[in-house]
Design goal:
CATH architecture of the largest domain: Alpha-Beta Barrel
Distance between the termini: 54 Å
Bound molecules: flavin mononucleotide
CATH topology of the largest domain: TIM Barrel
Shape: globular
Structural class: alpha/beta
Order of helices and strands: EEEHEEHHEHEHHEHEHEHEHHHHH
CATH class of the largest domain: Alpha Beta
Largest sheet: 9 strands, parallel
Number of helices: 14
């Protein structure tokens, strides 16, 4: 699959997640075979007003996979301005292979300002924002991520997708829920399939992919060109290798050992400390570490330990505690 001059391999992409898809997460997921990665969403308005934190969110790229920077906003002028600043190299350390536009965020503080999934209720403005980004992206390809509609009454997914294609958007990722459904219940694969059938550009299906089998099922149900993974990638970057192998007819890779899992967690948190400073990184590391404990024996008690991580040295104490719990449980099972 081509995005401008960039070749996107068959497999799973890392979906953008605010507070999650930071530089370390992007590098890690790319290393395990994410076919591309996307930044946390960045406010176009904040960027054009010179906000330094927004610049930091985009910096550093995406490791050894193509990298997209995701913009959100409901003002075409700000969206165009941000697209131009990024793609003309205005920000030090910020480069990308494509820009992505957020038409899916359901958070009231975003939709209340007419951005994210609110644009699924205002299709003329959706077109204008997309056109502004495409026009000002200096030849960098532009993609979009959307939901299937606002709610069961306002099911604008198909119409929105056609408009986005007409505006010059080169690829879509469709999260198979309405804005009203937020993150539950299950996704509507049939609605993603309708969107895929309505446009000629590549479409990636998104929502609830947690394994190679769920990825294969979703591709079969929707006819899409790939999948994007959000939550299931947290603490489980190996999932990309598993899905890539399944889609390309290769043998399934060995699942990570406990030792690999802890070493990966430690390295990810170490790199976060290097990138953001220990104080900020360790606050975020509490949730990162929690993901890695998922499914382990004694996970509930270990999760409590994760919540008190303060210094990087606490990560080694957590790993020792996690080993102790696993060994104790092993001994009990052998009795
Ligand atoms: C913590 C969190 C943050 C998210 N932030 C973004 C974001 O910045 N931009 C975006 O387009 N979607 C965002 N999403 C939505 C995901 O990209 C994805 O569409 C959604 O989680 C469904 O996919 P999944 O079931 O694989 O998680 C976020 C989701 C979560 C859970």
């Amino acid at each position: 699959m081509k995005l401008g001059d960039i070749e996107i391999k068959l497999g799973a992409a890392l979906a953008p997640m605010a507070g999650v898809t930071d530089l370390t997460m992007r590098i890690l997921c790319a290393q395990y075979g994410a076919v591309y990665t996307v930044s946390e969403m960045v406010s176009a308005k904040a960027l054009v007003m010179g906000d330094k934190k927004s610049q930091k969110l985009m910096a550093g790229g995406g490791g050894n996979a193509p990298y997209g920077i995701q913009l959100f906003g409901g003002e075409p002028t700000a969206m165009g301005g941000a697209a131009n600043s990024i793609t003309s190299g205005e920000y030090r350390g910020v480069t990308c292979d494509f820009l992505d536009i957020n038409y899916g965020c359901p958070a009231p503080k975003i939709t209340g300002n007419g951005a994210g999934s609110a644009l699924l209720k205002d299709l003329p403005l959706l077109s204008e924002t997309a056109e502004a980004v495409v026009k000002n992206s200096n030849g960098t390809p532009v993609t979009a991520k959307m939901r299937i509609g606002w709610d069961e009454e306002i099911m604008t997914g198909v119409e929105a997708a056609k408009r986005l294609e007409a505006a010059g958007i080169q690829m879509l990722t469709v999260h198979g829920r309405t804005r009203k459904e937020m993150y539950i219940p299950g996704i509507h694969a049939d609605e993603i399939a309708k969107i895929k059938a309505a446009v000629s550009i590549p479409v990636l299906a998104n929502g609830d992919v947690t394994s190679a089998q769920t990825a294969l099922n979703l591709l079969k149900e929707t006819g899409c060109d790939g999948v994007a993974i959000g939550r299931a990638a947290m603490g489980n970057s190996w999932l990309f290798a598993e899905i890539s192998a399944a889609l390309n007819g290769e043998p399934a890779p060995e699942p990570p050992t406990l030792k690999q899992r802890f070493a990966t967690m430690r390295k990810q948190i170490y790199d976060m400390c290097e990138d953001k400073g220990e104080r900020i990184a360790m606050q975020q590391a509490r949730s990162y570490a929690t993901w890695y404990m998922h499914g382990l024996r004694g996970a509930a008690a270990l999760r409590r330990e994760c919540c008190s991580l303060t210094y990087f040295t606490d990560v080694d104490k957590l790993i020792s505690a996690a080993w102790r719990v696993q060994e104790m449980q092993n001994k009990e099972e052998r009795r």
